[in-house]
Amino acid sequence: MSYLTTRPGADQYAPYYATYIRLVPEGHNPLQQLREQPVTLRQLLHGLSDEQARLRYAPGKWSIKESLVHVLDTERIFAYRALRIARGDQQPLPGFDQDAYVPASGADIRPLEDILGEYTAVRTATLSLLESFPAEVYERVGTASASPVSVRALAYMLAGHEAHHLNLLQERYLPLLK
C-alpha cells in the first residue's frame, strides 16, 4: 500500500482538516498509523480507573471518556464517508455537530473497558474497510460537509484526528494525574 504514502492534495479536503493530515508524517502510510494507535492508546490509559477517565483538563472540556467516544463517533462517520465515496456515491454527505454528539453519548457513565472494547471493534472494522479498497479508489472524490473530500484524505483524516486526541491526552490530561 505504498500508494497511500503520498498525502492528499489541498483540493481533496476542506482547509480545516489540514491540521489532522499534517499529523500523519510525510511518507508514512495512514493505515499503518491506524494500526499502531491502539497500542499507544492502551499504553497511555494502562491502569487508569473509571474515576480518572472522567477527568477534564479544564472546565467545559470533555472528559477522557468523552474524548474517546468522540474519536469513535468521528471514525465511524469518516469511514462511512469513505465507503460512500469509494462506491461512487456522489450525493453530498452532511456534516455533524460533535458538540451535540458528546453529551448525548453518555460516555462518562460507561466503564472505560467497555469504551476500549468498542474502540477495538470500530478500529478493526475501519481497517478492514480501508484495506479492502483497490488503489484507484483512494483517488475518488465526493462531497462531505459542503466540501470536496477524497477517500485518500479521509484515510489521512482518520489517522490524524486520533493523533490529535492522543496528543491532547498526553499533553493536557495525563500530566494532571501524576
TrEMBL record:
Domain named DinB-like: which ranges?
A: 33-168
- The protein here is known as DinB-like domain-containing protein
Name the species this protein comes from: Hymenobacter glacieicola
